[in-house]
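Hi F.,

I've been meaning to write this up properly since the lab meeting, where we talked about keeping a consistent format for the predictions we share between groups. The idea is simple: the sequence comes first, exactly as it goes in, then the structure tokens exactly as they come out, then a line or two of notes. No screenshots and no reformatting. I'm using this chain as the first example so we have something concrete to point to.
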Amino acid sequence: MFQGSIVAIVTPMLDNGVVDFDSLQTLVKFHIKEGTDAIVSVGTTGESATLSMEEHSVVIKKTIEYAGGKIPVIAGTGANSTTEALELTDNAKAAGAAACLLVTPYYNKPPQEGLYQHFRKIAESVDIPQILYNVPGRTSVDMTPETTARLAEIDNIIGTKEARGTVERIEQLVKACPPDFRIFTGDDGTAMESILAGAHGNISVTANVAPALMHQMCIAALNKDEATARSIDAKLTDLNSALFIESSPIPVKWALQQMGLIGSGIRLPLVPLSTGCHSDVAAALKKAGVHG
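Output, unedited:
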């Protein structure tokens, strides 16, 4: 079962915006070497919003191929259309994904019953482990712990990524959901406290550039070694903040470029990191012991 540091991996691109599969393979090998516990392919950080349906499925398939069974790959297959999410989830299953991550439908702002029926329909239609994803700051809809607990009763809905950014919400989910239901934080800044409060791991942006440290922090927190977890987390604090100085994945893509792992490509309407932010991200990389 999934736990620990799960990287929400970027989708590398060439300067013209075409997906750079060579760099994607490099990143997957990097995470295997550095001890990342699992990969989320084509989540928010993977620029899912600007990939075509075909690209979306191909990137997931290639990530699984590059992983070669050495690290689990969780496919991001959420959409604000239930039909589209079903198709993406079915494609991910055919590609051999270990599980799927499905964001709450965005923009159309469904009520709680709509969220329940949406996720239930996908779970009953595609036999693959599924992880819910709540990120109200991006979707303008907040799935409540009560709705999550209802969905946790469905056999192949195995967990949730909660990115509301508060430890209180994690505590509410731990209380509301069954003990074997996997709860992941999606907020790097509160990841340590969330795991100490009962979360099973962190689906992380920061792990893109500091995978070993994030893995070590998560494992220490899971083992209730609070002193070690806090010591490691202190090295990551500035990075957790700097990687959101502009809309993600703008800063993390710039950081990976400085590390020589990817090129500069990013898709409109996102643009490269503003020059005025370079020094803040560079300083945070240095503090974490990550050098470009």
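Notes:
The longest strand covers residues 157-162.
Residues 80 and 202 are 24 Å apart (CA to CA).

If this format works for you, I'll send the rest the same way.

G.
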